[in-house]
Amino acid sequence: MSKIMHAQQTVHLGLHHMERLSPMDPFRSAFNRVHREGIPFVLIAFGLAALFMIFLSETLGWIFIVLGLYIVYFFRDPVRMTPLLPDALISPADGVVSKIDEAAPPADLEMGDGPLTRISIFLSVLNVHVNRVPCEGSISKLVYVPGKFINASLDKASEDNERQLVRLDRADGRSVAFVQIAGLIARRIVCSLDVGQNVVAGERFGIIRFGSRMDVYCPKGMEPVIAVGQTVVGGETILATDDAVNPRPDGRAD
């Protein structure tokens, strides 16, 4: 267990050591890479800012400039260093672990009704909202479920809210389920995966706009190595692993 945590800390520190040099570095990196889903919002905000500045009100123009800067920050898509561990699950989202419990995976994914360890991650409006694949495998089932838009931090959000269900089959025969869940403000779930697609850990696969939640159902035999209340980084933080002690992992930047 100590080796896993050491490897996780090493990868995280190695990638982010430059970000701690200046408080402005995260903002600079936000402008370097924006998810394509955010580009229309950015153009609209700055377009309105220009119109107000020129024809109507400079004050309103500045308000839209600030709004545009926030939109750029929200849709930021930073590079992440993903630990390449075949017997581990990597966090598919940035946020805070809100719950770890035992629950049956969604019936629509046809993974049986036996309970699996479920890790729920809540994303605030300040988190990176780009989602990443938690492990290597093949996408075997995708199910979109329309629903409500209640607070994503509530337990019933897993059953009531709009969500995208994903089943991934691993090479070892076990399956992983992960679910994009819309929140109180979120009004669009984007999932770019296709059935039959082969994916690798840390690969980008979608985004949820403006506050949301991600549920991960671990395969049998995997145990969480994180705690409720812990902040996790999508594409980097190890959520769960097999009982075996892992060596120090290699990494994959994307």
TrEMBL record:
InterPro entries per record: PS_Dcarbxylase, PSD-A
GO MF entry, a single one: phosphatidylserine decarboxylase activity
Keywords: Cell membrane, Decarboxylase, Lipid biosynthesis, Lipid metabolism, Lyase, Membrane, Phospholipid biosynthesis, Phospholipid metabolism, Pyruvate, Transmembrane, Transmembrane helix, Zymogen
Reactions catalysed: a 1,2-diacyl-sn-glycero-3-phospho-L-serine + H(+) = a 1,2-diacyl-sn-glycero-3-phosphoethanolamine + CO2
E.C. number(s) listed in UniProt: 4.1.1.65
Biological-process GO terms, alphabetical: phosphatidylethanolamine biosynthetic process
Keyword Cell membrane: yes
Pathway where this protein functions: Phospholipid metabolism; phosphatidylethanolamine biosynthesis; phosphatidylethanolamine from CDP-diacylglycerol: step 2/2
Major localization listed first in the record, in broad terms: membrane
Cofactor(s) needed: pyruvate
Recorded topology in the membrane: Peripheral membrane protein
Keyword Transmembrane helix: yes
Subcellular location(s) per record: Cell membrane
Catalytic residue positions: S212
Post-translational modification: Is synthesized initially as an inactive proenzyme. Formation of the active enzyme involves a self-maturation process in which the active site pyruvoyl group is generated from an internal serine residue via an autocatalytic post-translational modification. Two non-identical subunits are generated from the proenzyme in this reaction, and the pyruvate is formed at the N-terminus of the alpha chain, which is derived from the carboxyl end of the proenzyme.
Cofactor, how bound (note): Binds 1 pyruvoyl group covalently per subunit.
EC top class, as a word: lyase
Similarity field: Belongs to the phosphatidylserine decarboxylase family. PSD-A subfamily.
Assembly, per entry: Heterodimer of a large membrane-associated beta subunit and a small pyruvoyl-containing alpha subunit.
NCBIfam families assigned: PRK05305.1-2, PRK05305.1-3
Classification via PANTHER family: ARCHAETIDYLSERINE DECARBOXYLASE PROENZYME-RELATED (PTHR35809:SF1)
Name this polypeptide is given: Phosphatidylserine decarboxylase proenzyme
Organism encoding this protein: Iodidimonas nitroreducens
